[in-house]
Inverse folding.
């Protein structure tokens, strides 16, 4: 698989990718979470998470509501405090490698009535490059347009963001993250409430990222499409239930353990899995 | 889903305090001196205790012509700088207010100003007791105001952060408790043998005209600093207000940025106390920004408009206040500002009520026009289908309707349209139909003939076009419903403006197979030339 080619400064990335189980010490994985526990108001929401992302793979984070999917991403990105454990990106603490990590928050996290247009939002992904105090010059606006083009939104560049459909808003968010040209992308529910065209566009982008040797961790809610869209899966319900290649880990038993057996869909999914000829 | 908010509310009062101290220091190097010093008397705000008027004073004097022109043309040095200072204050408040409005922190300015009252009173008492009979400087009183204001904000944020009280409740609690404490202290001051509360009333109601050069320097200087910081950090503040978490994930120090923004607000609120009064400071921060939002969908223009409106309201307030000595400048500034707000709400180009209403009416009219055109086409359609043989009652064209355009007369124009039959077509009431027909007649799409109407050439073309587009849309939805509706601008009239030419060609073919008589391309413009 060509996806294992990981950007330049990691000569030893391939062996790290191979040793899937264990070996968290000084991992150079795109993201290595070690023994992470997160609590809100004394109530732990994530327990002892150990996870190494495989470089160059698309990984789905799957779990029921309240299972800590969003918390996992936010805690990894230091957006909420961790009760214990540590997280390394490309073998370094997050604050030293921020530019290599792109983040796509949930669409509902911002006020879409805000007075900005699509280009303005995408340009925010370039602010670090622009630097303190400087205004967004024409050069950067043009760059932002290029990234809008990549998600098929260039026709909507001047639209105020509340006049975009949910899917279009999601694509703007994606373009903002792409503008950062990171090596790892963490996306929080990018597929929620989007139309078929956006779903297609996001999947295409994910595949482009993978072809470029980048890694993506995507919180995903639609079990049906997990085998189709992703290589790896992380099953989460406050604890890590299972993680690994979709073909090995995405089993009815594991899903039942994750969702507590209350999912009638599970058998169907399992059925689909066994019938899916594309799975290796 | 729970979301952590702990970090976003962390606002240390330290930074705002430092910044204001810096500003005070910059604007007025001698600000810290509180004692009387005859040599620098012009620099020290001496509040003449007995000369102050209260809001209940109703004596009124029209200004003379001379004074009017002097004020408006800013002939006098004093008027000039007072107006200039007030205007800078308005501009600064409008600028910072934009960010506060967008950050949903509209009430913070109110909390700062109300919470400052006990600080003013305590500073007054301290000076009164420490230097009995001495004079009170504005700077000392404002420093007291600043300390109390910061304490108020700190209390509010702490309450909402460490308890289950929500932020709005915390703000309301702090605001009223501090204000109550201030009023109580004022009562004590009044009971003092030497104490006079009158001089402090300007902080409640505001009085621009009483400002002297030194005050103006302080106010103008602070405003300039606030404006400059806002301009420098414009992009960063915008990011903070729109998506704080994303900014933090990129390594922007959002907590510090937030503190700086809070510091600017605190500065403006404290500086505005004297001219606008603590009751109304919040209006200066929020009203211009709220008004500006109606005119634009971009942050930059919104900030500029807000600053402009703030400046103009403050300037007008200053003018009125200096013309009518007993008029509270704060009240005038707020009234002018709210006039702008109401005008903006009514007329604002982007979100005003009137443009929205007009937009709505235009849409209703367009929809009505389309409905009528399509209804007429569908009425006549069965007759078109009887091709050639018996195409019209009035005339006997020698060709079928398919070759209509060639014969010069559209077959659609040949039929008499009767009122009751149109009415029956779509459950229209006569009252609904009448204006539709009137518009069609005045628009040259229908002509009045005996017993009813007849389509004109233009009307026939329009009817075909509307019917065709309607069917293309329907076909599109039937054939390609799985393609995202987000590819479709629901507002577009013409399908070829929305979909790519290949798809339109496909649809045309599908439609013309079902409706061969539609004689498909009556479109007024080439369909695939747009590519």
């Amino acid at each position: 698989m060509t996806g294992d080619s990981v950007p330049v400064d990691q000569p030893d990335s391939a062996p790290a990718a191979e040793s899937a189980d264990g070996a968290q010490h000084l991992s150079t994985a795109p993201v290595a979470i070690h023994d992470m526990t997160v609590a809100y108001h004394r109530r732990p929401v994530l327990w002892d998470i150990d996870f190494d992302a495989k470089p160059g793979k698309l990984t789905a984070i799957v779990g029921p509501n309240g299972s800590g999917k969003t918390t996992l991403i936010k805690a990894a990105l230091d957006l909420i405090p961790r009760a214990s454990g540590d997280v390394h990106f490309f073998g370094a603490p997050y604050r030293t490698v921020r530019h290599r990590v792109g983040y796509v928050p949930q669409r509902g996290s911002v006020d879409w009535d805000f007075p900005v247009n699509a280009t303005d939002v995408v340009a925010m992904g370039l602010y670090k490059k622009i630097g303190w105090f400087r205004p967004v010059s024409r050069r950067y606006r043009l760059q932002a347009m290029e990234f809008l083009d990549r998600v098929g939104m260039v026709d909507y560049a001047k639209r105020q963001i509340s006049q975009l459909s949910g899917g279009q808003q999601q694509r703007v968010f994606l373009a903002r993250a792409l503008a950062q040209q990171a090596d790892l992308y963490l996306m929080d529910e990018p597929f929620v409430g989007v139309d078929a065209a956006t779903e297609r566009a996001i999947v295409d982008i994910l595949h482009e990222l993978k072809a470029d040797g980048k890694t993506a961790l995507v919180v995903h809610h639609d079990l049906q499409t997990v085998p189709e869209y992703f290589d790896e899966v992380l099953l989460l319900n406050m604890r890590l239930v299972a993680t690994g290649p979709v073909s090995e880990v995405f089993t009815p038993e594991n899903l039942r353990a994750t969702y507590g057996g209350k999912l009638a869909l599970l058998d169907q999914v399992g059925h689909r899995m066994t019938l899916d000829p594309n799975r290796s | 889903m729970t979301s952590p908010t702990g970090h976003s509310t962390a606002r240390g009062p330290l930074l705002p305090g430092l910044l204001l101290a810096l500003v005070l220091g910059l604007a007025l190097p001698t600000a810290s001196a509180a004692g009387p010093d005859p040599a620098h008397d012009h620099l020290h705000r001496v509040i003449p205790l007995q000369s102050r008027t209260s809001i209940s004073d109703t004596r009124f004097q029209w200004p003379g012509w001379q004074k009017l022109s002097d004020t408006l043309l800013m002939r006098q040095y004093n008027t000039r700088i007072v107006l200039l200072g007030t205007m800078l204050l308005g501009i600064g408040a409008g600028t910072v207010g934009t960010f506060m409005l967008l950050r949903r922190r509209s009430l913070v300015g109110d909390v700062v100003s109300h919470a400052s009252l006990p600080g003013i009173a305590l500073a007054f008492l301290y000076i009164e007791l420490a230097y009995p009979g001495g004079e009170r400087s504005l700077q000392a009183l404002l420093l007291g105001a600043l300390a109390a204001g910061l304490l108020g904000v700190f209390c509010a944020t702490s309450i909402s952060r460490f308890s289950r009280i929500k932020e709005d409740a915390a703000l309301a609690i702090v605001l009223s408790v501090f204000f109550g404490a201030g009023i109580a202290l004022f009562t004590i001051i009044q009971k003092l043998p030497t104490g006079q509360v009158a001089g402090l009333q300007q902080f409640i109601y505001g009085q621009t005209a009483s400002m002297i050069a030194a005050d103006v320097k302080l106010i103008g200087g602070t405003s300039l600093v606030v404006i400059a910081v806002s301009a420098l950090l414009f992009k960063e503040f915008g990011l903070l207000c729109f998506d704080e978490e994303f900014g933090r994930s990129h390594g922007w120090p959002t907590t510090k940025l937030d503190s700086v923004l809070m510091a600017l607000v605190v500065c403006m609120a404290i500086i505005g106390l004297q001219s606008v009064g603590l009751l109304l400071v919040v209006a200066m921060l929020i009203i211009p920004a709220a008004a500006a939002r109606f005119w634009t969908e971009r942050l930059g223009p919104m900030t500029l408009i807000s600053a402009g409106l703030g400046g103009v309201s403050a300037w007008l307030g200053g003018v009125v206040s200096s013309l009518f000595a007993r008029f509270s400048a704060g009240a005038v500034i707020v009234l002018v500002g709210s006039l702008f707000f109401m005008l903006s709400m009514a007329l604002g180009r982007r979100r005003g009520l009137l443009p929205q209403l007009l937009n709505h009416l235009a849409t209703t009219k367009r929809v009505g026009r389309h409905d009528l055109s399509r209804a007429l086409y569908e009425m006549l359609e069965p007759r078109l289908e009887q091709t050639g043989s018996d195409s019209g009652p009035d005339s006997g064209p020698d060709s079928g309707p398919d070759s209509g355009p060639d014969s010069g007369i559209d077959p659609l124009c040949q039929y008499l349209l009767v009122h009751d039959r149109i009415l029956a077509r779509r459950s229209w009431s006569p009252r609904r139909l009448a204006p539709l027909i009137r518009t069609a007649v005045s628009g040259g799409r229908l002509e009045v003939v005996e017993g009813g109407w007849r389509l004109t050439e233009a009307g026939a073309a329009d009817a075909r076009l509307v019917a065709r587009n309607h069917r293309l849309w329907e076909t599109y939805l039937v054939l390609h419903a799985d393609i995202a509706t987000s590819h479709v601008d629901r507002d577009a009239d013409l399908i070829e403006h929305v979909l790519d030419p290949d798809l339109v060609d496909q649809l045309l073919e599908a439609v013309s197979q079902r409706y061969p008589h539609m004689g498909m391309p009556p479109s007024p413009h080439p369909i695939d030339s747009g590519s």
